[in-house]
């Protein structure tokens, strides 16, 4: 073969499946794939231990090799499997089952480092930032409206009053080019 890639009949299952950032209601599953596999996505199967119902998640991002599991229950045992998806359609075998247990909420809070930021804190920071942006935009609009009103008053002051124009005589409307009043010439 002239530098052609080795094509296997089937994909190998993902390896080194681990849990990171384990919390009472979420966890991050990470994995590696064997070198040379042409993978277009992953399928993650999450199951509570001793429960038949499965949660099936498909990930199409092939660069991160991780997936966050949300809505987990505290103090609950889970089993996770990961499969690779090939371009031709078939999936690999399941990875080795990974068993983990979510901690209590109180254990998660106690183990939180002082540098770690929660989603609630991020949300509060975002709301404060959004509020500042809204205030700045409103102040800018008030400035624009004030400038418009000022310019409108200047234009209005420079505009000849139509009621006074009717009372003016033709000599008041004269110009240097037409000293006798406009385009009409007086008969002398």
Q: Your description of this structure?
A:
Pfam families: fn3. Residues 96-117, 159-169 have a biased composition (Basic and acidic residues). The chain is α+β, with helices and mostly antiparallel strands. It is built from three helices and seven strands, in the order βββββββααα. The protein has helices at 105-111, 119-158, 162-167, and strands at 15-20, 27-32, 39-48, 54-59, 66-69, 77-86, 98-101. The strands form two sheets. A four-stranded antiparallel beta sheet has the order 4-3-6-7, with no helix packed on it. A three-stranded antiparallel beta sheet has the order 1-2-5, with no helix packed on it. The protein starts with 14 loop residues before the first strand and ends in a 21-residue tail after the last helix. The relative contact order is 0.13. Residues 1-8 have low confidence and may be disordered.
């Amino acid at each position: 073969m002239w530098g052609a890639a080795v094509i296997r009949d089937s994909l190998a299952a993902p390896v080194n499946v681990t849990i990171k950032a384990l919390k009472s209601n979420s966890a991050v599953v990470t994995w590696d794939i064997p070198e040379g596999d042409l993978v277009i996505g992953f399928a993650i199967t999450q199951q509570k231990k001793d429960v038949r119902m499965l949660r099936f998640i498909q990930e199409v991002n092939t660069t991160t090799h991780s997936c966050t599991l949300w809505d987990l229950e505290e103090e609950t045992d889970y089993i996770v499997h990961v499969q690779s998806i090939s371009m031709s359609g078939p999936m690999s075998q399941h990875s080795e089952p990974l068993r983990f247990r979510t901690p209590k909420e109180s254990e998660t809070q106690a183990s939180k480092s002082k540098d770690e930021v929660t989603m609630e804190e991020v949300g509060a920071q975002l709301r404060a930032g959004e509020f500042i942006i809204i205030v700045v935009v409103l102040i800018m609009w008030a400035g624009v409206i004030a400038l418009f009103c000022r310019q409108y008053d200047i234009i209005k002051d420079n505009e000849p009053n139509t009621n006074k124009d009717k009372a003016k005589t033709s000599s008041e409307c004269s110009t240097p080019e037409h000293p006798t009043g406009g385009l009409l010439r007086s008969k002398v």
